[in-house]
Write a structure and sequence with these properties.
Largest sheet of chain A: 6 strands, antiparallel
Shape of chain A: elongated
Number of domains of chain A: 2
Number of helices of chain A: 7
Strand order of the largest sheet of chain A: 5-6-7-10-9-8
Strand content of chain A: 25-35%
Helix content of chain A: 25-40%
Distance between the termini of chain A: 8 Å
Radius of gyration of chain A: 24 Å
CATH architecture of the largest domain in chain A: 3-Layer(aba) Sandwich
CATH class of the largest domain in chain A: Alpha Beta
Number of strands of chain A: 11
Oligomer: homodimer
Order of helices and strands of chain A: HEHHEEEHEHEEHEHEEE
CATH superfamily of the largest domain in chain A: Chorismate lyase-like
Structural class of chain A: alpha+beta
DNA sequence: TGCCTTAATATGTATATACATAATAATTGC
DNA sequence: GCAATTATTATGTATATACATATTAAGGCA
């Protein structure tokens, strides 16, 4: 979550929010360099004329956000940032397309229900074989293909998917409606379009493409593996780093 | 920050941490779907046999982490996840190369100090012209070029860079030592290698490459713009989504 | 001067209490 | 039955107090 104070009517002006904001501003502006000792809690209670618990609340939040580190008896110190962690927002493809001011269209290319094989087990990180659904889809921006989707759904985790044709709804939003709080790992790389991809995206064989592979876990088991392929010129991912994130 | 309880000796077993962990587990497992009302604070005080402030502390953290939303008089409700926000960790290239079990080597290709032009103003989002430093570098993994770096440093923000040759130290780690808490925006896409890139990375003209462009801000002004280009087969970015992040 | 013991201190966690406030529910009057 | 008013209630924020505990500083002694 963001620690930076915003014009949020809910917390604007509350004392602990002011303390939190003042201190994070000093850190992020460089006024307090890594290693600098933040004033002791009792010093801050005098400075802000408040209780120790109010100061403690603000400092605890800064610690959780990763800006400071707290050491008993020693005090609180500005941290050196860990590896920069940029937040990459993953949107439903429809949202991405419509943000470009284009009309979105979805097309199911193929759908097969079968038993998982060795490659599937590897993609989904499954321990044992079971029923899976494979889907191949295209997402259009205006008249142009925008993304090629190749997906594997673990039917043990989402049995309902067996009864869904995915003719009119893309699997991504359908799944997020059923497994809303899931974990995911994304792998992002560049590839040269193979013949299948070239045909699906209407680009030249060997053209550069951006590939985002995502594996998703629901309640302790894998739900889906999906590979999105975008033509190089049609997609840029944006990730932002704000140092207040954990 | 992560809300999920870990085997952290610092907080393991503390009551508010247990409450936080229990509730986030129910949400992430799907036991409590979006829209579900979390028990009222007074109900949780009875359930955990503790004070309202302890419960409030845990619920406030869950709210800040984005898992629940709090409404006065109404209660707390499980939220539908916003767009999934995957955390993309950006490491120093040396760390990436060494994680591959390869030897890292850095080479400065070119360095120029000059006044910013129109393209620079655009890249750095500067309002007015000033002195800049341009750098072209290569990063090697073993004997192979791993990344091609083209950088622009705003000397108004980091005047010290004017006195640094960057012969033995890459600009990235040098800058993070001086502007530790900065904000950044990354743009990730696929491109076909142009002649400069092909030569720098020792790949074929037109080969697919992964490009990560990063613009960094220090204290309210831009610090640097950098474009890293990686050969397609040498680099995969990994981003992880854990729903406890804001 | 160095080591051991004791005292002091800053943070960690929790509870009790208080008041504020937004929102919901109940009551009253027409 | 509906609107206005009042009461109730759940969260928001803060303070006071207490005890726990890890770490640092001070003192004594050999």
């Amino acid at each position: 979550m963001s620690v930076a104070a915003t014009a949020d009517p809910e917390v604007a002006g509350s004392l602990h929010a002011r303390i939190l904001s003042d201190i994070s501003e000093k850190i992020m502006s460089g006024a307090w360099a890594p290693g600098h000792r933040v004033p002791f809690e009792h010093e801050l209670t005098e400075q802000y004329n408040c209780s120790r618990m109010t100061v403690n609340k603000a400092l605890s939040q800064l610690a959780k956000a990763g800006l400071i580190e707290r050491r008993r008896r020693s005090g609180s110190f500005v941290r050196r940032p860990r590896s920069q962690a940029a937040v990459l927002e993953i949107h439903d493809i429809r949202v991405e397309v419509e943000a470009l001011g284009l009309a979105y269209r979805y097309e199911r290319v193929a759908r097969h229900r079968r038993r998982s094989n060795g490659a599937d087990l590897s993609l989904l990180e499954l321990g044992q074989a079971g029923p899976v659904l494979t889907l191949e889809c295209r997402h259009f921006a205006g008249e142009r293909p925008f993304a090629h989707e190749q997906r594997l759904i673990n039917l043990a985790a989402v049995p309902e998917a067996a009864g869904e044709e995915f003719l009119d709804i893309a699997p991504g939003p359908w799944l997020i409606g059923r497994v809303p709080w899931s974990e995911a790992e994304h792998r992002i790389r560049a590839v040269a379009a193979d013949s299948r991809t070239a045909q699906a995206l209407d680009i030249e064989l060997g053209a550069p493409c951006l590939v985002v592979e995502r594996r998703t876990w629901g309640a302790e088991r894998p739900v889906t593996h999906v590979r999105f392929t975008y033509a190089a010129e049609s997609h840029t991912l944006v990730a932002r780093f704000r140092p207040s994130q954990g």
